[in-house]
Amino acid sequence: MAIKQIEPPQAYATLQEHPGAIYLDVRTEGEFAQGHPAGAINIPVVFIKGPGQMEPNPDFVAVAAQALAKSAKLVVGCMAGGRSQRACELLEAEGYADLSNVRGGFGGARDAGGAVMVPGWRDAGLPVTTELGDAAYAALRKKAGF
Asked: CA 123 to CA 142: how far, in whole Å?
């Protein structure tokens, strides 16, 4: 099944129309803490080890499996849309079927020259928070028994 591609305004509308839908933010814990879509939960798909050095999160699928029902409607976002597409592919392989990748993510998709091609969640003026609580990766890992 093809992973749906939506932009931030469509993602927001989906979350409003489907109260059980979940915004899964797959950015790093630090990125998430600096601001994220209101109501989002955080499970990083990769960890940043240094400039340009990303390492897959070995527990991504396992934590997701504990935190998210396979029947859940998931809206998956990152900073621009690349990491979230990869996360959608990993989740799809695990049996999740209702997946939407947020093109433009939180910070916007840019072309090679740096021009914004798709405004991100933040620049679209959609609700943003820095609240963590149970939505933080550390809390989700603990709840999942890691």
From this structure: 32
Average pLDDT, integer, range 72-84: 96
Residue spans per domain, the chain:
4-108+125-143
Annotated catalytic sites, by residue?
Answer: 78
Residue 40 near residue 102, CB atoms below 8 Å = no
Cα 64 from Cα 91, distance rounded (Å): 8
Look up the pTM and report it.
0.95
CATH number of 4-108+125-143: 3.40.250.10
